[in-house]
Q: What sequence folds into this?
């Protein structure tokens, strides 16, 4: 059942089915997955619980609007973590969240980080430096994710720390997409990205909240350009905390 639910959820999250689209009938899904109707029905119930699907008499099964998707559901985090590609609209929503929140989180980290937090941040950054020239960029992206997760952790706020962990798969998807886009650039582009991340780390280490906020905004604004987004686009809803 879990494998069936995972496969169906990832198809929606990747954009194979969009909001308002009809989802395949139970019998068709039974044939596709070679599974009993009860197993398929239970798998569909998981997607309904996560806000991806709505089942109503007369209409069948419909993909719900993205605003109804429960991105903080642990099941959703699991489904997102295995995606090869993500729905562009969902990617834009995740980016808008990061642009609004992470500069504030970075400023808070600059006020709260201790020696252990700084060591964790430095390890992640060193990993980024050591893998900067890897052709696949996969390892580099993982260290990049660890760098940003370390910033959430350094706030020493229970909600921000848990939110950073829950959203790790979503943030990872965004960073991997950014890395793939950045492969088109030369080494100077990658060095500049490292310099921007180093500036965030140094601002946190020196306990300079406003500088940490500004440097984090620069990191995210560059990521937006790599993804083909405009940071000032109204749809991204950029606002300062």
A:
């Amino acid at each position: 059942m879990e494998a069936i639910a995972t496969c169906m959820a990832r198809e929606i999250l990747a954009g194979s089915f969009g909001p308002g689209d009809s989802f395949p009938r139970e019998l068709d899904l039974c044939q596709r997955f070679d599974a009993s109707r009860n197993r398929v029905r239970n798998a569909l119930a998981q997607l309904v619980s996560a806000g991806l699907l709505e089942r109503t008499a007369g209409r069948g099964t419909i993909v719900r609007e993205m605003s109804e998707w429960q991105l903080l559901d642990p099941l959703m985090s699991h489904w997102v973590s295995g995606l090869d590609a993500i729905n562009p609209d969902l990617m834009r929503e995740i980016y808008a969240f990061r642009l609004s929140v992470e500069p504030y989180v970075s400023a808070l980290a600059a006020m709260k980080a201790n020696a252990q937090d700084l060591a964790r941040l430095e390890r992640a950054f060193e990993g980024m430096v050591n893998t900067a020239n890897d052709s696949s960029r996969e390892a580099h992206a993982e260290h990049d994710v660890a760098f940003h997760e370390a910033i959430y952790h350094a706030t020493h706020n229970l909600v921000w720390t848990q939110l950073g962990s829950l959203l790790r798969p979503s943030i990872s998807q965004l960073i991997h997409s950014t890395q793939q886009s950045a492969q088109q650039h030369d080494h100077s582009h990658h060095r500049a990205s490292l310099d921007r991340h180093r500036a965030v780390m140094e601002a946190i280490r020196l306990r300079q909240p406003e500088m940490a906020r500004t440097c984090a905004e620069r990191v995210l604004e560059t990521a937006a350009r790599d993804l083909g987004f405009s940071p000032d686009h109204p749809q991204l809803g950029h606002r300062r905390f």
In short: The two ends are 41 Å apart (CA to CA). Residues 4-68 form a domain with the Arc Repressor Mutant, subunit A fold (CATH 1.10.10.10).
